[in-house]
UniProtKB/TrEMBL annotation:
<keyword id="KW-0560">Oxidoreductase</keyword>
<dbReference type="GO" id="GO:0005737">
    <property type="term" value="C:cytoplasm"/>
</dbReference>
<dbReference type="InterPro" id="IPR036188">
    <property type="entry name" value="FAD/NAD-bd_sf"/>
</dbReference>
<dbReference type="GO" id="GO:0016491">
    <property type="term" value="F:oxidoreductase activity"/>
</dbReference>
<dbReference type="InterPro" id="IPR006076">
    <property type="entry name" value="FAD-dep_OxRdtase"/>
</dbReference>
<feature type="domain" description="FAD dependent oxidoreductase">
    <location>
        <begin position="31"/>
        <end position="381"/>
    </location>
</feature>
<dbReference type="Pfam" id="PF01266">
    <property type="entry name" value="DAO"/>
</dbReference>
<protein>
    <submittedName>
        <fullName>Gamma-glutamylputrescine oxidoreductase</fullName>
        <ecNumber>1.4.3.-</ecNumber>
    </submittedName>
</protein>
Amino acid sequence: MANTPYPQSYYAASANAVPPRPVLQGEVETDVCVIGAGYTGLSSALFLLENGFRVTVLEAAKVGFGASGRNGGQIVNSYSRDIDVIERSVGPQQAQLLGHMAFEGGRIIRERVAKYQIQCDLKDGGVFAALNSKHMGHLESQKRLWERYGHTQLELLDEHRIREVVACENYVGGLLDMSGGHIHPLNLALGEAAAVESLGGSIYEQSAAVRIERGANPVVHTAQGKVRAKFIIVAGNAYLGNLVPELAAKSMPCGTQVITTALLGDELASTLLPQDFCVEDCNYLLDYYRLTSDKRLIFGGGVVYGARDPANIEAIIRPKMLKAFPQLKDVKIDYAWTGNFLLTLSRLPQVGRIGDNLYYSQGCSGHGVTYTHLAGKVLAEALRGQAERFDAFADLPHYPFPGGQLLRTPFAALGAWYYGLRDKLGF
């Protein structure tokens, strides 16, 4: 059987050592079969194990192989569409539930890191950076909105104050969220996987689910084995393929690109980001960056619709980095990679149940680090019969892309071109 390694990335190169995990062979019986060992699957597994369920996790490649091990490593609160959009489209009770959950994912990450002593370079503090007065007005509204839901660790930054936080001349201000922050994302996933195993859960790698036998007693088939379960949680997100056709029709994998510089040294690194906060700008097609624990700059941005791998990632992202930090013009890039996230038409996550026992969560639309940890808790609650928070997500409309799978990529790319133009013109 083919062994799928991690893509060459800074995260894979600096990952904590972990023992090899077995390939599923033969038949296993469990309470819950989780498909996918990324954040959604691992978070679900941990909450279920803590509540007495037997759990088996199937991973097509390696723990954290997909978006969970390749993302920008930023802990960003709320959803890809903020709570004000949700308030306008759902009833008041549902909006209240979803609004209060918008800040829970970051708390769950910190609880997991503390409880299971996960070594993942956790740092507090994230900045939303405004490139113009319209962005600044949006951040002022966002602060009021979030404070209405009890989220108070926020500080508006004026033009002088943001210079103390990031050495970039392009920003007119920003919003600092001290409950945001950043982590080594692959090491977080590996630590959560070790926690799953410490509680008696099983994780099989190189064991892709190839078919789900649905019904009262569902069975998940892999190339060399099968898992009999009472419940299934589908947590493959952008790497699920067509295993569950109903889910593929309502989402689209998209690629994002990330580069990592050579070692900068303490002095240069601390001039770029003196407080060691992570930063993302307020553009629709946003750039995001942060320092690593060994003082490199990780810089990401750009979207490739349909998730094709671009030929030269550095050529796409390096100019964006130099626009923010021209002082890095002579710095070498050591790593460049791409990874997929799953986009929905509404840019809100899709959560639900198919039949009586197949549960799913997908479509974080670029806001996955915190949301996936919340999703695991919400899915675990639903399997325990506490479905109020699950239902708040499940009742959000799941729109198919216009024109189906054939037209979803050009449709989304056209939308991105429009918003990219708006970003350039400062609308």
